[in-house]
Amino acid sequence: MMGANEKCDVYSFGVVALAVVMGKHTGELITSLPTLSADYPVPTNGGDSRIPPPSSQLEKQVKLVLILSRACLNSNPCERPTMQQVSNLLMKDLL
Known about the structure:
- The protein is mainly α.
- Helix content is about 55%, strand content about 0%.
- It contains four helices and no strands.
- α3 (about 55-70) runs antiparallel to α4.
- The protein is flat.
- It starts with 5 loop residues before the first helix and ends with a helix.
- This is non-specific serine/threonine protein kinase.
- Keywords: ATP-binding, Kinase, Nucleotide-binding, Serine/threonine-protein kinase, Transferase.
- GO terms for molecular function: ATP binding; protein serine/threonine kinase activity.
- Its EC number is 2.7.11.1.
- It catalyses: L-threonyl-[protein] + ATP = O-phospho-L-threonyl-[protein] + ADP + H(+); L-seryl-[protein] + ATP = O-phospho-L-seryl-[protein] + ADP + H(+).
């Protein structure tokens, strides 16, 4: 059994980031992880016409978080990014 380490932390980050972006409970996400792909559609207004669609910049940022989340959730811990790599990409592309 593997103890807690950075690869577990980055996996947890991926779960939380995906839950926030998708607006779903983590339990719902875990069951659908095998079907998520890198081209998963960016969540829109959730059917509420009062909410404007995301700007192209916001859509780009959300896609980045989705891609990073998917990488963090890689079933092989050795292939997951480090938190430093995730942080660097987020800082570079989101700020």
